Amino acid sequence: MTDHAAAASAAAPVTAAVVTAVSRDAEHRFSKDNVPAIRLLAGLGVEGDTHLGVTVQHRSRVAADPTQPNLRQVHLMHAEFHDELRDAGFDVAAGALGENVTTRGLDLLGLPRGARLRLGAEAEVEITGLRNPCPQINAYRVGLLKECVGKDADGNVVRKAGIMGVVLRGGEIRPGDPITVELPDGPHVPLERV
Predict the structure, then answer these.
(1) How many CB atoms are closer than 10 A to CB 174?
(2) Looking at domain 15-182, what is its CATH homologous superfamily?
(3) pTM
């Protein structure tokens, strides 16, 4: 490496993935309240959150088949999406779209299925898929659903409203906690809606 390249490399900012907010709600409401900390429970989800459980807890999924496994125990959203929404004229705070964990510095949507996120000192979540934005988003802010679901250049649907996961290892998570990623062995399997 040349001296110039070494100096440029040393001057480049290093961004680490971090938790920026944590949220939960014991009721089936659209938004979740920001709290100082949440506790993840292995195999269940977020302690004190309405979506906690081994089987599905989302009302539409319970109505379809209440015995389905809960692959949506934890909802994660990247703060960069909030920035994008703000640029489009929608001021959306962390937790407002129902996420439990808001992150910064990590391409959540680009992670493969089966990726594992270590959140803080102990908690570990395995990524199961994409959140499928629902029409309730427009009830929260008219026109917001169009910002959460788009199409790529090939006409494929692109879901931008975060990812879902299951809790492998419990633990407490707070804003400011670091996030580390462990990718699964084998080929990269893109996330699909769950």
Answers:
(1) 15
(2) PK beta-barrel domain-like (2.40.33.20)
(3) 0.90
